[in-house]
């Protein structure tokens, strides 16, 4: 009986497999292109293909980030405190959480902002009421516009980058790699690794883009030369 049932469904099964193969073929891309993210083709907010042949690694990283609707700034290390202060002011951020290993000079110019320095030992109660977070970055992947956090002292624990609405991430140019395949030669797996590709957003429900579901709605990346 089971054999007869399978045989009877064979045309439907063949049709389904054909549709799957067609879908996989349509999603394939040539090796010289980069697609940021894996959102459904045509969904609102779906990243577009970026030709990476002629772009330097840092330029590619910035292009993919912008395609994800992240805000990107490039500064010299001397201009970093002023850049962070300008972001905080222009975004109307009134309170910030920072990991206790973050360089104080990076955010010393933020002015009259409530600062919470987190050493990771206390409960996560109250972080949802804080406007923003500033972190460093272990590594960044240009082709996918991905920030890699691994719990280092200047990155802090994951919860502080989940609850505030603004994430200001400071990325040094030497930390930017080109491909995902290079990641684990730069970052170990002894601690949990978090990959962040753009502001929090989903198009899962009726292909309508919803921001802030899984983390900050606003991602600001400051690339430091």
Walk me through the structure.
- The protein has helices spanning 2-8, 10-27, 57-67, 80-90, 104-107, and strands spanning 33-35, 49-51, 71-75, 95-99, 114-118, 132-135, 139-141, 146-149, 166-172, 176-177, 194-196, 201-202, 210-211, 218-224.
- A hairpin with a 7-residue loop joins β12 and β13 (210-211).
- The protein is 23% helix and 24% strand.
- The chain has a six-stranded parallel β-sheet, sandwiched between helices. The chain has a four-stranded mixed β-sheet with strand order 10-7-8-11, with helices on one face.
- Residues 1-7 and 27-46 have low confidence and may be disordered.
- The termini are far apart.
- The chain has a single domain (30-224), classed as Rossmann fold (3-Layer(aba) Sandwich), CATH 3.40.50.
Task: Explain the layout of strands and helices.
Elements: H1 2-8, H2 10-27, E1 33-35, E2 49-51, H3 57-67, E3 71-75, H4 80-90, E4 95-99, H5 104-107, E5 114-118, E6 132-135, E7 139-141, E8 146-149, E9 166-172, E10 176-177, E11 194-196, E12 201-202, E13 210-211, E14 218-224
Parallel strand pairs: 3-14, 4-5, 4-6, 6-9, 7-10, 9-14
Antiparallel strand pairs: 1-2, 7-8, 8-11, 12-13
